[in-house]
Amino acid sequence: MTKVYNALAPEEDEEGAVSPASKEPISKPSLHASNTAVTEDKDSVVLTCSTDNTGVSIHWFFNGQSLKLTERMKLSQDNSTLTIDPVRKEDAGNYQCEVSNRVGSSKSDPIRLDVNYGRSTTGLPVASIIGIAVGVLVGLAL
């Protein structure tokens, strides 16, 4: 005697009806940044991926490659929000999010994050000013 088993596709319910969310074509997500010009080791940035689609997976890209999370990066539970705190110079570049379901996927337009280095009101890097000040103090002490 041969037994026959009916396998249901993951998007089908017990009656074989396909879930409307899984048949929905993917619309282009939008990406928003709390700030796109930030100062290294001082500021944080929050990137939010918004989509009209439900039941999707969200993935993040940095300069066209899959984002590798560092200890300063946190994703929200649903992956829709990426927080970088604090930002560093290596975080500068283009960020994108991609939403996908069983039907397809779509990437957002890129957002460029510019990371500025700590500068004083003189326009010189803070480390240079400290070096100049130390040099002057040492010179005065001699």
UniProtKB/TrEMBL annotation:
One of its GO terms (cellular component) is cell surface. Residues 29-114 form the Ig-like domain. InterPro entries: Ig-like_dom (IPR007110), Ig-like_dom_sf (IPR036179), Ig-like_fold (IPR013783), Ig_sub (IPR003599), Ig_sub2 (IPR003598), IgSF_CEA-related (IPR052598), Immunoglobulin_dom (IPR013151). PROSITE patterns: IG_LIKE (PS50835). It holds the Pfam family ig. Keywords: Disulfide bond, Glycoprotein, Immunoglobulin domain, Membrane, Signal, Transmembrane, Transmembrane helix. GO terms for biological process: heterophilic cell-cell adhesion via plasma membrane cell adhesion molecules. Belongs to the immunoglobulin superfamily. CEA family. This is Carcinoembryonic antigen-related cell adhesion molecule 21-like. It comes from Leptonychotes weddellii (Weddell seal).
